[in-house]
Structure formats: structure tokens, C-alpha cells
Amino acid sequence: MAVKIILTQIMKNESHVAERMLNSIKNFVDGIVVVDTGSTDKTKELILQYGDKVKLLESPWKNDFAEARNKSIEHATGDWILVLDADEKILSSREKLEEILANTEYEGFSIPIYSIVTDMQ
Fold first, then answer.
1. 10 Å Cβ neighbour count for 82?
2. What does the pLDDT average to over 102-111?
3. pLDDT at position 82, please?
4. Which candidate among 14, 75, 77, 101 keeps its CA 20 to 30 Å from the CA of 30?
5. SS3 of residue 7 by DSSP
6. What is this structure's pTM?
7. What string of DSSP letters covers 42-87?
8. Residue 26: helix, strand or coil by DSSP?
9. Among 22, 40, 30, 41, which Cα is nearest to 80's?
10. Which residues are CB-contacts of 102 (< 8 A; sequence separation ≥ 6)?
């Protein structure tokens, strides 16, 4: 049984990394919810290029990370929610992740983050 995975993100002026991340994840997830907290660069235009797969919500930054994160999660409709920052990407296959998610009793996972210090453009 296939699982529905929705990516949630908070962004503000992330055009320098957003496209790379969205390209790496677009075939991995079933939908993307982005809360933009006031971008003045090309971030929103980049996000909207991903069409119906993306729900863009605009919400002014209120100096409350949890409020912005919770807003993105409230709009995520799926079996699983994946939370990534704009400068992160997944290094796994969708098939492997589905295998793990379909056979678990856990309600959530913490995924290891590897920091690669290089120019990834």
C-alpha cells in the first residue's frame, strides 16, 4: 500500500537554495506545503513553478518559529509529514522510505542530518 508523503517547509528569501532542494524532492513527495514568511527575493516565484503539487501560504514572520511550522503542518494532508529546511535534501529513495513507513508502528521518526561543507550549486 502506497503512503502519501507531504513535505512542509518554512521559507524566507531562500531563492539561492530552494530550487535545488525542490528539484531533489519533487518526485519523492506527493505534495509540498510552504509557509513563506515575507520573502522579498524570487523564492515565491520559484515555489509556484512546481504547480499543483505545491501549496504556498503567506504568513508574516511573528518571531515565532513554532507558529510558522504549525501552520505548515495544519495544511499538510497525507499519511506522513516530512519536515525539511530549504537548504536540506533527501539522500534516500522513495521506495526504501515507503517500505519503512508501511511496516512500522511508530508515529514519527527522527532522521539523521549530515552536514556537507562544500559548494553544492
1. 19
2. 87
3. 92
4. 14
5. strand
6. 0.86
7. SHHHHHHTTGGGEEEEE----S-HHHHHHHHHHT--SSEEEE--TT
8. coil
9. 30
10. 1, 3
